[in-house]
Automatic annotation (TrEMBL):
<protein>
    <submittedName>
        <fullName>Uncharacterized protein</fullName>
    </submittedName>
</protein>
<dbReference type="InterPro" id="IPR058009">
    <property type="entry name" value="TTP_Phage_16"/>
</dbReference>
<dbReference type="Pfam" id="PF25595">
    <property type="entry name" value="Phage_TTP_16"/>
</dbReference>
Length: 162
């Protein structure tokens, strides 16, 4: 018999509860209303989406120079900060920071940057709903079929690749 999974549709509310009395940690109706709760739903909706940048550089010389300049600048700044009245340490820190900035610019020029941004929650929920898990995946606890989700292409992507 196939396992059937259901996604709850509707409005999700995010609440901060000061107290939950039950040992099960399941709040009562009274506990999810004011003054015990604070509604964070709108604040969560307004927040920016998670984003990560992956920088790929095939030029090992520039990568090595960048890494060394970064370490050197951090070390020089730490030393200069430990003795603020020492002019030679401050000069070394300035020179190391300039070398790091030049190495960073060269590294950025030789790199490709890929930006990954999480989709908005409604889009993610629609994708998950459109790619239900197989019976085996559901038995293993999966909420969606990763194989079909990852091979998903939007109509715009399909049109641009032809």
């Amino acid at each position: 018999m196939a396992q059937q999974r259901f996604m709850r549709r509707g409005i999700t509310k995010i609440l901060w509860l000061k107290n939950i009395a039950a040992a099960t940690r399941i709040p009562t109706r009274a506990e999810i209303s004011a003054p015990n709760s604070t509604d964070l739903t709108e604040a969560m909706r307004r927040r920016s989406l998670p984003e990560r940048v992956l920088q790929i550089c095939d030029d090992t010389a520039r990568r090595t120079e960048y890494d060394e300049a970064k370490r050197s600048a951090a070390r020089a700044e730490l030393l200069a900060g430990s003795d603020p009245d020492n002019a030679p340490l401050a000069a070394r820190a300035t020179a190391a920071a300039e070398r790091y900035e030049a190495a960073r610019k060269a590294f950025d020029t030789a790199s490709i940057s890929l930006r990954f941004r999480a989709p908005p929650r409604p889009v993610l929920e629609e994708l998950i709903h459109a790619h239900p898990p197989t019976d085996q995946q559901a038995a293993d606890g999966a909420a969606f079929n990763a194989e079909t989700l990852l091979s998903f292409r939007s109509e715009g992507d399909a049109a641009s690749s032809t």
